[in-house]
Amino acid sequence: MPVLAYARPGLRDSIHPGTNGWLIADEIPLSSGIADALDQGGMRNSPN
User: Fold this and answer.
1) Is the residue at 22 inside a domain?
2) Does 6 or 37 have the greater pLDDT score?
3) pTM of this prediction?
4) Range of the domain at 22
5) 41 vs 5, 8, 27, 34, 35, CA distance in Å?
6) CA distance 6 to 44
């Protein structure tokens, strides 16, 4: 299951954008990150 998280230490090591989720900058509202991730839909058909 892909995740969306702020690009912070620890999370940057665990989340690989485009593979298992997305990282967003602290100044971006979480709701905007969710909307962008849904628009991209790059992992929508991923079995993980």
Assistant:
1) yes
2) 6
3) 0.70
4) 3-40
5) 16, 23, 22, 11, 10
6) 20
